[in-house]
Design a protein that fits this description.
mainly beta; three-stranded antiparallel β-sheet; two-stranded antiparallel sheet; globular; DUF569
Length: 115
């Protein structure tokens, strides 16, 4: 969390120089080369009573959420979506983990956000 203590919003760029973007449908999350759009900006919210965990809110007021839905048929990766949970939900919580000069986001279940 110390990485984002003073951050109000972030843009997340992957190893392919694409930005994680909230789609206009308010549900889908995509990768986009244009990181200057409002869709590529995620508001950082600390999780109460946790120093290490954050939530990331899209420009549509929904949270970056780790789903259980497979990203590709036969693959092991899971989709991330935008969701507005009705109550406390650990699927919208992410732990920033430093790996060298990069920061990865890990779910409460030990899975990482991947490109």
């Amino acid at each position: 969390m110390e990485f984002f203590q003073k951050a109000k919003a972030i843009r997340m760029r992957n190893s392919h120089n694409k930005y994680l973007s909230a789609d206009d449908d308010g549900e889908t999350v995509t990768q986009n080369r244009n990181g200057s759009t409002k869709n590529a900006q995620w508001t950082v919210e600390p999780v109460p009573d946790s120093y290490t965990v954050i939530r990331l809110k899209s420009c549509y007021g929904k949270y970056l959420t780790a789903s259980n839905e497979r990203f590709l048929l036969g693959g092991t990766g899971k989709k991330v979506v935008q969701l507005k949970p009705s109550g406390p939900d650990s699927s919208v919580e992410w732990e920033p983990v430093r790996e060298g000069s990069k920061i990865k986001l890990k779910t409460r279940y030990g899975n990482y956000l991947k490109d």
